[in-house]
Each structure stands twice: as structure tokens, then as C-alpha cells.
Amino acid sequence: MATDLGPDPDSNPPAGVHSLWRLRGYLKPHRLALTIMLLTSLAGVGLTIAIPLVTKAIIDGPITNRDLSAVLPLGLLALGLGVLEAALIFWRRWVQSNAVLGVETAMRHDLYERLQELPMGFHSRWQSGQLLSRATTDLSGIRRFFGFGMLFLLINIVQVIVVTIVLLNMYWPLGLVVGAAAVPIVALSMRFEKRYVVISRQVQDEQGDLATHAEEGAVGIRVIKSFGRGEHVSLQYEEAADKLRDTSMVKVRLAAKFWTFLEIIPNLAVAVVLLLGSIGVGRGSLTPGELVAFITLLLSLVWPVSSLGVILAMAQEAMTSAARILEIFDTEPSIVGGSEVIAEPRGHLRFEHVDFAFPDAPDELVLRDVNLDLAPGETIALVGATGSGKTVLTSLVPRLYDVTAGRVTLDGTDVRELDLKHLRSLVATAFEEPTLFSMSARENVTLGRSEASDADIDEALDIAQAGFVRDLPWGLDTRIGEQGMALSGGQRQRLALVRAVLARPKVLVLDDTLSALDVHTEKLVEDALQSVLGSTTGLVVAHRASTVLLADRVALLQDGTITHVGDHRVLLAEVPAYRELLAADAELSELDEAVTA
Amino acid sequence: MSTDTPPQDQPGADERRQPSWRGVAQVDDDEAAERERSVRFSGGSAALLRELLAPYRRAIWLLIGVVVVENAARLSIPYLVKEGIDTGIPPIRTDDNLTPLTIVVCLVLVAAVTQAVARNFFLVRSGLLGQNVLYEVRRRVFRHFQVLSPAFHDDYTSGRVISRQTSDVDAIYEMLETGFDGLITAALTLVGTAGILLFLDLKLGLVALACGPFLFLLTNWFRRASSASYRITREKVALVIVHFVESMGGVQAVQAFRREPRNQEIFDDVNDQYRRANLHAFRLVAFFMPGIKLIGNVTIAVVLLYGGYLAYNGDVTVGVLAASLLYLRQFFEPMMEISQFYNTFQSASAALDKLAGVLREEPGVPEPEEPHRLQETHGEVSFDAVRFSYTEGRDVIPGLDLTVPAGQTIALVGTTGAGKTTLAKLATRFYDPVEGTVRLDGVDLRRLTADDLRERVVMVTQENYLFSGTIADNIRFGRPEASMAEVERAATALGAHDFIMALPDGYQTDVANRGGRLSAGQRQLVAFARAFLADPAVLILDEATSSLDVPSERLVQQALQTVLSGRTAVIIAHRLSTVEIADRVLVMEHGRIVEDGSPAELIGSGEGRFADLHDAWLESLA
After folding, report:
1. pTM score, whole prediction
2. ipTM value of the model?
């Protein structure tokens, strides 16, 4: 079952070096850049070591031996090395910027591409927020590791080893002290990072919980107000905020302890080096220049050593991120198009023995043995109680979901054998909950036909009674959606209808598209729709008698199967269950009787 | 610089370049605020910051003292190294006397321990202070949003409410966590180091500090360039996020309308804009970091040369030279950090400004100063010469007198924009009238506390928001003390019991998980159960049954008549079937009541708007 479902949004996939290794393809185009980065970094390590050695040479040479002539060349050498070091850093960073951003952008492109291919079955289980964190946080984590972590993991180890060798070589007792000081720092860093990652994740989770409370407080504000529950939700929020504060303090204390140790250990090493080194200088086994160089080099080791912990944690996180990304790359789209194309589509739609269950609940059949035949140009109204499976049935036509058994055919061809783009160009749906994007109204309505002319748009606006679009501040160019003009439920539904009509489909699906319209507007829309539906095959989900009248025939859906198909009046007269659903007439006649009485 | 860097000298240039798909919209206040930012905490943000920090005045002075001690201890170490070399070594050379050296080493140890203890104390205490301030900000902002009227929320949109409480609070957190500690340390390091360099040897120190102007120029350039580039990067990433979230949230429409290629095109474009903005930012750093390094290395080389010369002449000791070099290293370290704080401070200042703006908002419907305590509620609602407008000069309700006697069920009918919903919002005090009075049992709503009012008047709208938690929790929302039996009774009365029991965990099903597949109608029934369980004296239904099928709607109506018999009910509907149970029908037009009577009377008259509507409806059913 798990294989059918694809990955679970709430579980963390197993991560390891192999996860990052599998992403190496993204580095390939940047091989030259990576080589430059590595070489310049290695040269940088050499310079970090060389500059203190020049200092030593100046102190021990010209100053101690009273030889002024050597000061200038050595000073110029130090200057040259210093300039070179800066130049190498510049070169590395310049090359690195381009390479790592190229990698990140390419991965984000591929991720988006794959996500668009994955079917509704996948998306219904993944909230866009969960996907977003992969496209932002995870990708920049990987970028940081490729551009920084990976490089310095290597460089720092090299630097620590080389410097320790230089120090041992210079004066081995002190070299041993430095080596000994490095051990607790590395051990501590690694232990700290492990605990830090755990507590950071906990803080993150609690921040997420708090954000959920904030979101509910904002989105549900009218419900909260209606019931006067502001105090209650505020207390809940404060409880969560308080918990977050406590957890954050645990994190602060842990970090404080770690940074304190990180500073005290090198300082203690300096004390020991100063003691032994000065004795060494006093007794002649070490020169003053060497002591100065020694301390300088010792201090230059603090960062490479202590950052190993951070870099390892970064590597760990990058591996987890890589695994989370790969999880999506590895999910194959379960709905892939076939190769058939209908040369002259007429819009003959058939459901043959269709069963359907949602992928994550395969035992609960939502549709059972549905059979329905829509002749070209015919409109059928789909009537059924709340939750009887009407919406799911309509979503099988453009293959937002696939049937579990049976088949849906269009002009005799199984929709699964049709080219997906072709199929979806033949079928257009106006959804009950219209999705508007934060784009211009034009872009929103031409979703299914980007080449639509202004005349086409005008016509569709008229059919859907959506003339209000022309009165928006910038007309069709006005941005609507979350980040633009706010529209009412009825306006949004009419735009969804414009979108569907404008796509000029052979099969038009209206999923209770008119529910938010007032009676007057609904009537106008229905009259205008008649002309469109005259030549188009229509599948109309209806709750109201008025909508049913758009259709030539009515299909009654009960408990996931179609029990009756026929004329509205006939069904009304003969089928009690149908009367029950659209019985307003019956009661109305009672009301009429009351009036006339 | 290279050609592919985004133009950033003109803030407006960006807008004009925007591709047409985005459409035109008014400039977001937030974006505008972000643009005009400076690092100074000005006006509202300064006042807010002062207010938040006021309770911690003593703690702050203590922290400042501690951080000075810490930095003094830290900066003393290179000086002690110099002392060790200059005063510790000669006695060993002459008579193997270790005492001076031992004293110096002990001082180093003392300094190291002092620094560590002070540092730990500072980190923990400043962390605690930061967390407390953060908690206070969160608490205040959340509560304030809860107090602000729905009118405010209508304008402000939930997205902005959420981002105030997440990204803005995070920006402040960032500043408190890294900014203060880092900035104080960096500043003390700079000043302290410069002082010590001069103290060690005036001439050598002056030569070393000659790099100052170069550092200043470089840092200043970077600060400016990076803050502009930081802003652009944030704008670009926001574009990526919006496009990503929307296309994933609306993937159904995307796929059904074969939108994928166009979406990919748009996404590639914003993704690339983001890349270029980032590239620009990275390249600034690629100049700045080595630039600092260059100045540092050149200074070190010059100090080495000049110091070597001085040492050769015996003007300075080897120890002084060594200490100067060690201090110089420390001098350049904080430069990088200081410039990065700038961005942190900048966004924190913008965040504080926005939060201060929110906290300054007065609630549109203030709590009464001397509340009137309601004893028994009957549920009589009356409007007395009520005038209301959303925007000055455009009256939605020009003048309304209406009394709904306790226990009456009225239906409000009229076209979109007739003022039905406004009437409902006035009765629930989502808004206050501009003129006139709305009363419950003869008491002006403005004299009732929100708690008192909400307990008695409940509105159900089309918006059937369910909170995370179980179905039972959601039904119990208005009356948390209700027993399970009462919850089930409410659900049963509405015909919601059966579908709830069919869910995997019945009433304990988590709404966020499996409940996510509840249909709009089912959610609506849960919202109804919530309202019925709250047992208000006045129930207002604003288009609340529009997503229900007819049998469910009928059950709701029956429940209204049984469960809530004797309660006042106001029903707004565009479906006339809802009107059937009403005692009285009000037809509204342009904010006025144009017809008023029992359904039978209005239809019976044969003319008038309701009769027309009714005829049209009959026709649609035929």
C-alpha cells in the first residue's frame, strides 16, 4: 500500500551520505568552479600558515641579529602574501556565488516541475506549506553545504593537521599541548551539535505550533468573535508561547555553555603555551619569534577546530534535506498520459462500471459500479446528497484521479489512453471552490487558453455575468487573489465559470458552480449557459431544482452509485429519494395552498 | 560589476519591469514600509521597544556591566602575553627566576576564567531577557488582534495578521538573539582594541589605526549596497514563495486547465530573478570579505615592517610588537559581523514599526467603560434610527427602524448588496452604527461587554471555519463545558450524527487529518452544531445553508424550530426555501426595508417584490 501512496508528508525519510551523493549530478556543470574553489582554499591555508612564519622570521632575523637589510624584503613578502590571500578569497567567493546559486536554482526548477506532474492523490495529502519548506529551507541548506560545508570540512581538517605538524616541528612539547587542546574541543563540539540539533528541532516544532495558533486566531477570527471565545484562544496561544519560551531557554543555556567552553579552552592553551614557551625562550630552546608565531598559529586554529561541529551538523542537515527532496523526485507520477489523440472529438462521455476509492483509504469505495452515458452535446445533471461522491465522479473525467476499476471513455477511447494534455484540453471544469491566483484577472481567466482574444474574453464574461471585472480599477489587468483585489464568493465562482467557458471544451463540468450566486444572477447565468451547453457535453452537479433545469437528463447518485437516470419531472414523480432531495416543490405547493386558503 | 546584476539604484524600476501576468495592484503598505526603512528605531518602534524593555532596566545595566568586564578580560589576554614575553623571559635568562612569569600566567588564567564566567552569565541572562520580551510581544500582539473588530480584519487580511505574528516576531527574535550580543561585543572590541594599540605604543598604534578610514569607507559602501540588495532579495523570495504556494494549493485547477508549461515559465522567471538577486548579494560579500582581509593584511604587513624597524632600534620590545599583531587580528574580526547586523537591525526595526502600528489600532467596537449586566435574556432585538456606512458618504443603511420581538423568526430577503449582511453585523456588534442605536432587550449593545453579548447573540455564516482538534472540540467551541451527550444531541438534531459516526474515529476524528475530506456541506453542519450547542438567545444565519442539500437544509430548519423554539432567529438567504419557516419576511433594498409581513401576506398580495421573487422562483422549479 505504501508504494501506491508515495511518501508520507509527516515522516522523515532515512538520510545518509548516499542522499547527497545522489544529487552530485547538479554539481557536474560546475566542475571547474569547484576545482577553483578547492585549490584557492588550499592555497589560503598555506598563506594562513606562512604569514605568522614571516613574522617569526622578522623577529628572529633582523631584530635579534641586528640585520636591518632583511626587514624590507621580509616585510614586502608579508605584504605580497597578504594581498595574495585576499585575492584568493575574492576569486573563490566570486566563483562560488555563481556555482552554488546555479545548483540551487536548478534543483528548485526540477522540484517544481516534478510537483506539477504529481497527481491530486499526492497533493491532497501534502499541504503546500510542507512542499514550500522543501523548496526553500531544504534547498538553501543543501546549497550552503555544497558551497561552504563540503569545502570547509575538507579544508579545516587539512589546516588542523598541517598547523599541528608545523607546531610540533617548531617546538614539540608545545605542539603536544596544542594537539591535546584540540581533542576536547572536537569532542565537545560534536556532542554539543547532536544535542543542539535535537533542541533546535523542538524549538522549530513549537514555533510551528505557535504559528498554527496564530493562523487559527486570524483565519477563524469571525467564528471566535461570534462565540466570544477570544479569551480562550488567547490563553491557548499564551500557553504555547510560554512553552516555546521555556524550550528556547534550554537552547540558550546549552549554547551558552558551549560557547563558553569554546573560548576558555584556547585561552587556557595560551596560558600553558605562554608558560612553557617563555621558559623555553628563557632557556634558549625556543626563539622569541617562534613563541609569537606559535601563539598566532594557535589562535588561528580555534575557528577551524570549533567549526567542525557546526559543519558536521550542517552536513547532517543537508543529508536530511537531500533525502526529503529525493523523496519527491522518487515519487513517480501515477497519472501519466497515453499517446492517443482523438482526431475529431465529439464529446461522447461514458462511465463504464466505474469504482473509485481514495488512494489512502483503498477499502472504502466512494463510487461503486457507476454507469452513465452522455451523448455528444447532451447535458446531464448529477444530483445526490451531501457526500455522495458527486465531485469525485466529475474529477475522474479530466483524470485528476483515476478510476479504481472500470473505465471512463471519451468518444470510445479510455481516458487513460489519451494524451493527458489533449484530454484536459477537451474537458474543462468550473470548481465549486474556485482557486484564484495572485495574478491579473486576465491571466486568471485565460488559464485554459492563453491565446484567447479580448473578444473571446468579453463573450465569456457576459455568459458568466462577470462584467464586474471590467469595473475593477485596472480592468482585466487588475491583480486579484490573496495579494490583490479581494472578491466575494459569488464573484470568484463566476470567474471560475469564465475560465471553464473560455477553454472551449468539448465536455464542460460544472461542480455546483453557482451555489454562491443570488437567485437573480443565477438565472441570468443559467440563461446564458444554455447557449454554451447546447453544443457542449455537460456534466452539472446540482443541489437545486433551478440548476437541474440546465440539463437534458438527470442522474441520481446514491451511496456512490447511480440509481436512476431520467427526466427531471419523471424522477420527481416516481422516485421518492429524488423528491426528497429536490423537494422544494412539494413544500412550496403546501405553502401555496396555505396562501390561497 | 557584471551585467546580470539587477538594477537597484531606482526602487521604482523594479515595478515597471514586472511581467504582465502579475497584474496591477496597489502598493502593499508593508512593502512600502519596508522600503523606507532606516536602521534607526524611529517613532513607534522606538516607543514600543522602550516600553517592552522598561521592566528590565536594572537587568540591562547589570548586563552592560558584565559585558564590559567580559570584554576587558578578553582584551587583556594579548597584553598579558606581551607582559609574559617582555617581563617574564628576562628573569629566566638571568637567574632562572620563574616568579614574574608565573604571576603573568596566573593572571592569564584569571582573565580566561573571568571572561568565561561573565560570558556564560551574559548569554543566559540576555537570552532570558530576550525570550521574555519576545513572549510579551507575542502575547500583546495576539490579544490585540483578538480585540480588534472584524472591520479591521476585513481590511487587514489574515495573511498579514499571520505574518505579523510569525516573520515580524522572528525578525525581532533574530535581533535579540544575535544582534545585541554581537553588536555590543563588536563595538567594545573595536574601541578597546584601538585604545590598547595606542597604549602599547603610540607611534605603532597610529600607524595601525591609519587603516581606519579605509575600513570605514569599505564598510559604509557595503552597508548601503547590501541593505538595498537584501531588500530586493526578500522581495524576490516572496515572489517565489507566493507563486509556489499558490500553484501547489491550486494544483487541481493547474492540472485541469493544462497550466503546467505556463506555470513553469513563470516559476523559472521568478526563480531566476531570485537567483540574480542572491548572486548580487553574494558578490557584494565576495568584494567585501576579501576587502576587509586585504586592509587587515596590508596593515599587518605595515605594522610588521614599521614595528620591526622600531624594534631594531630598540624603540619597542618584541612583546609589544607581538601584542600589537595579536590585537590587530582581533580588530578586523568584528568588522564583517557589524555590517551583517545592519540587515538584522533593519528588518527588526521594520518589524517593530509594523507591530507598533498594529498595537496603536483602536478597536472599532470598544468595550464599555461601565458595562450593563444583563440578567435574563429574552432576545428582543431593535434598531432605532440606525445609519451605517463603511466609507464616509456612502450609506449602506441610511436609516432603519426595526423591532424583532423575542422568539420571532424573521427572514431577510433582497438582492446582493441590499444591506442584509450589514444588518446582521450590526446586530452582532461586529460594527457599531454611525448614528442610532441597536438594542438587545432594550439595552444599547455598546453598553454590553463582548462576553455578555456573544453568549447571547451568535451568528453562523457561510464561512464554516473548523479549528484544529477533534470534531467534538469544534462543536464544543462555544460551550467548552458541554458534555459528550449534549454534543451528540446537537449533532443528531442537525442530522450530522450519522456522517460523524462514519468517520474513522467518530467524534474524536481530528479535523486536520482525516476530517480534511469533509465536504463543504458537512463542515457547515458541524458549524451549525456548534451554534446550536452554544444555545444563544438570538441566532443569526447569514447565507448559512447555501452549501447544504435540501434534506440537510430541512433538518437544520426543523432543528431551528425544535431545539431553538422560543429563540429569536434572523435568517438571511437567497434561496426562498429557507424562508418557509419564518414568521415574518423583510424585503430589503438599498439598506431599507421595503416590505414587511408574514410570507403568506406578502405572497397573497400578488404584487410587490417578494411576490415577484417568489414567482420567479416558482418558475425556476417548474
Report:
1. 0.81
2. 0.85
